[in-house]
Amino acid sequence: MTWYETKGRDSDVFVSSRIRLARNLNDYPFEGRLDDASRREIINKVRSAFEGDGEYRFVDFSALPENERIAAAEEHKVSPEFARGTAARAAIESSDGAVSVMILEEDHVRIQSILPGKSLKEAYDRAASVDGKLDSKLNIAYDDKLGYLTHCPTNLGTGMRASVMMFLPGTVAAGGIRTLANQLSKIGLTVRGMSGEGSAADGCLFQISNQVTLGVTEEETISKLSDVTGKIAEQERAFRKKLAEKDGERLNDRVMRAYGTLMYATMIDTKELFSLYADVRLGVCLGLIEGIGTEKLDTILIRSMPAMLMRDHGGNMTPAERDHARAENVRRLLSGASRED
Amino acid sequence: MTWYETKGRDSDVFVSSRIRLARNLNDYPFEGRLDDASRREIINKVRSAFEGDGEYRFVDFSALPENERIAAAEEHKVSPEFARGTAARAAIESSDGAVSVMILEEDHVRIQSILPGKSLKEAYDRAASVDGKLDSKLNIAYDDKLGYLTHCPTNLGTGMRASVMMFLPGTVAAGGIRTLANQLSKIGLTVRGMSGEGSAADGCLFQISNQVTLGVTEEETISKLSDVTGKIAEQERAFRKKLAEKDGERLNDRVMRAYGTLMYATMIDTKELFSLYADVRLGVCLGLIEGIGTEKLDTILIRSMPAMLMRDHGGNMTPAERDHARAENVRRLLSGASRED
């Protein structure tokens, strides 16, 4: 069960919680300057650290078909940059899908853990456990003053990026995202659209994460992010309540129409899917639609991304073919029918 | 079973066929100049012509609540003008709902028969039978040269208006309505939007009727209208075929989305209903949606008109209340559930 298939804590606002730790090995230059032999060495060293541990499996990532690599990024298991790269790189995955170690992303090693809902602490514990394993077996670059040494100076220190994916339709409707972004930047946090840096904030999904890694502890960062996202969630729920009170009938109509479109449209592009997802997910959270969990909608969204569809289809498709496959996929997942295969 | 509840011949294009005969009594001035006593006399005379015939019932139309009167016009059982009038007037209805005699519309008597689908001849036979009954019992104004004398000179002669309600989404999509209107006017026929003179051609519904009543026989008029509407239907089917071949996938998507909206929206106004009706009816006719007949959609459309909703509700409603009731009504009728009452 990947994160999106499981109902997490406070899933009305919290979609997922993610920790990413950047680590590098001593005795090697940073990723951009590595020759092929060194890349192989690093991959093998990291791989050997997990040897004999049945919970983890090694994936020769650069040998995967492109659709499978991009699909892993669409699932948020690896970064888009890692998925797109063509030089030798590998991944280590935990059997439950919550942890993935990217070998030769921007840093030699990036440990990522992702869990559904409000679960930053648990996600950190999962990542820290892998970090401990690596630390005991590899020679990790660490400076007493600077902390973990990373490729990009913005990661120096803890090397940790903690981020929470939040569903904020109420805040969007109230026009509160810009204010939120301004407030967050003043306290060393940042807000971005779902797919990462600079992407459109589709589906009312926003990633809130720490910007500061130097001069703070992991615990401080997580505690601060937990507190702040908790407050954002309270505000979001208040906005939703106001929205439902002010124009509940129109909201209900919008939600039900979106549901009807998901159930009956035969062509849906990604942009529209994000919008329908947001309306129906809000309806589910407000109790306007019953019998569906937020995890069903999160699953529908993730599993209808372009590369996910092509991976499941087993080959490339044109945008029009994807729009058809997407609509069919949505209908199948929403009506709960199991796939005949 | 009223016309819209029954599947008629060639219902893919022919929604209904209607005949209206204008008749006046000798020894009375035309309708606008009648005093109350004369109005009562005329009502009683016409009523008495049906006395003892169990197939017909008398309705004291001016005593009906306004919603019920307007609803009868929305069902096309009486004319909108007849429904809106406040002076004493009455109606005689056949038990199957196909024939209604308006007493003191613009003429003293207007016999109307309406049947589903392509059925002009049958509709004429029904009206002619009532006409014969009236002729044998009342002193009908008739001139050997001018034919039936009518209030408006445009009805002189046969006093007959024959009209066919056609569903022409293919012709609309092909931009062919203006050409059609020009062609029809040259041969003494006219095309109008569903609700009558000057109304918007919503729902791709068009009334094609004769303009000429003088110097022609009823049979000639009906035969000509049958031939011409038959050709319009052939052309419409060709347009639909082309539409389905050219962009069938997009058409299917539009049809299914409209169906989804009908099934799930919680507020639908009349204008949107006409548009959704047209898309779904076309889908049914092209076999894109199965398990629904055209008569179901015609029923949904007629029974969701404003006064119909208020009549069934038993009182006036605001436009917003009607939009809710309309959506509920549509959902109920479309899902085939019977009303719990």
Task: Report on this structure.
The structure is a homodimer of 341-residue chains. Chain A is α+β, with helices and mostly antiparallel strands. Chain A has 2 domains: 3-238, 2-Layer Sandwich (Creatine Kinase, Chain A, domain 2); 247-340, Four Helix Bundle (Hemerythrin (Met), subunit A) (Up-down Bundle), CATH 1.20.120. In chain A, 46% of the residues lie in helices and 16% in strands. Chain A has 11 helices and 10 strands. Chain A has helices spanning 36-49, 66-74, 80-84, 120-137, 169-173, 177-186, 218-264, 270-285, 294-303, 306-313, 319-334; strands at 14-23, 56-59, 90-94, 99-103, 109-116, 142-143, 147-148, 160-167, 189-193, 205-210. In chain A, the strands form 2 sheets. The first copy, chain A, has an 8-stranded antiparallel sheet, covered by helices on one side. A two-stranded antiparallel ribbon of chain A has the order 6-7. In chain A, β6 (142-143) and β7 form a beta hairpin. In chain A, α2 (66-74) packs across α10 (306-313), α7 crosses α8 (270-285) and α9 packs antiparallel against α11 (319-334). The relative contact order of chain A is 0.14. The model of chain A is unreliable at 337-341 (pLDDT under 50). Chain A binds chain B through residues 249-250, 252-253, 256-257, 259-267, 320, 324, 327, and chain B through 249-250, 252-253, 256-257, 259-267, 320, 324, 327.
